[in-house]
Design brief:
By secondary structure, this protein is an alpha+beta fold. The protein has helices spanning 2-31, 75-85, 203-208, 263-310; strands at residues 39-53, 58-73, 89-99, 105-116, 129-130, 133-134, 153-157, 162-174, 177-191, 211-224, 229-243, 252-261. It has a 12-stranded antiparallel beta sheet.
Length: 338
């Protein structure tokens, strides 16, 4: 019975030893994915900002500017891309809506972002655009990969329609979560005018006025590394309307302010990330290490039982030595004839 139990324990040890790396390197990439139907909204604010009044074409201070960002998963489009490429992808239809203190439109820029559901790498399968203009993204946008590393990444800037490094700057604690802090600076760059502006203004109208749009920002993210989700994001955002071919004329500040995530949305994001973090850790740490430790324990028990099954109750003669013949049983006493 001991030998049979030993073999069963050995088989279980081999099973869990094999399951440990499979959970981390096979199951995790196939199970940890952004759902294609995900919907998320976020409100950011820039208090005491500067904004251009298109009615008077003068810049003025305002109490706050609100930026509403929505990410909506397009399931139908994702399925079409999967049929063509064989990849599990997410298609986000996003919108960045900037509003003045009264909630009126300042600008509105839609996007379509197609990316791998696990790695977050862009998938070039057609349909990518920013404000209706076709683009080909390189690098990440909005979200970092699962198990974010302490290194620089390539980050796509939808305003400049270009990719630039975003630099790892160390670890920070945000509401009890350890995060990786990243920074990206976009120098002054000529960018396209949004197609939706106040008072029905269009890029063509702005061009006819002899003006062009320039943009610069310092982008900051605090990223929870297990999930790759930003739990805080800020920008030192600047936009100018400059006079075309007239560098001597003073540019107009279209928008300038320190953009921060609104506290209530940040709290919701932190709570969501904390719950999702446990699921990722379950597949990358808790289960693989637990299965590995269980395999070691089962192996030790198997070897112990095997040793006890093989241990003899009496000493075994040395190899090559013959066992002594047993003494003959005593017979009846001899009979003596008188």
């Amino acid at each position: 019975m001991r030998r049979r139990a030993s073999l069963i324990l050995l088989a279980c040890a081999v099973f869990f030893a094999a399951l440990s790396p499979l959970m981390r390197w096979y199951a995790f990439p196939r199970l940890a994915k952004i759902p294609p139907s995900q919907y998320q909204d976020m409100v950011l604010e820039a208090k005491n900002a500067t904004l251009l009044d298109y009615a008077t074409m003068k810049s003025k201070k305002v109490p706050k500017v609100s930026i509403v960002q929505t990410l909506k998963g397009n399931v139908e489009a994702a399925e079409k891309v999967k049929d063509r490429t064989g990849k599990d992808v997410v298609v986000w239809d996003t919108l960045s809506y900037v509003a003045d203190p009264k909630g009126k439109l300042v600008s509105s820029i839609p996007e379509r972002y197609v990316f791998d559901a696990h790695t977050q790498e862009p998938v070039h399968a057609g349909g990518e655009h920013v404000d209706g203009d076709k683009v080909r993204r390189e690098g990440i946008e909005y979200k970092w990969p699962f198990l974010t590393e302490k290194r620089d990444y390539e980050y796509y800037d939808f305003q400049a329609r270009s990719t630039a490094p975003i630099h790892y700057k160390g670890t920070r604690t945000v509401k009890g979560l350890e995060t990786y802090y990243f920074e990206q600076t976009i120098p002054w760059t000529k960018v396209k005018v949004p197609k939706k502006l106040p008072l029905g203004a269009t890029p063509k109208v702005v061009e006819q006025m002899g003006m062009e749009r320039w943009y610069s920002t310092k982008r900051m993210f605090w990223v929870e590394p297990t999930t790759g989700a930003p739990v805080d994001g800020q920008e030192l955002h600047k936009e100018q309307m400059r006079w075309t071919d007239k560098p001597e004329k003073k540019p107009l500040t279209a928008f300038s302010g320190h953009v921060k995530m609104r506290p209530d949305f940040q709290n919701e994001t932190v709570d969501l990330v904390k719950s999702q973090r446990q699921l990722v850790l379950l597949m990358t740490s808790y289960l693989p290490w637990g299965f590995g430790g269980l395999a070691v324990v089962l192996l030790a028990l198997s070897l112990t039982l095997e040793y006890r099954a093989r241990r003899p109750s009496d000493p075994t003669p040395a190899d090559g030595a013959e066992a002594p013949e047993p003494d003959p049983e005593p017979g009846p006493p001899p009979v003596v004839n008188a």
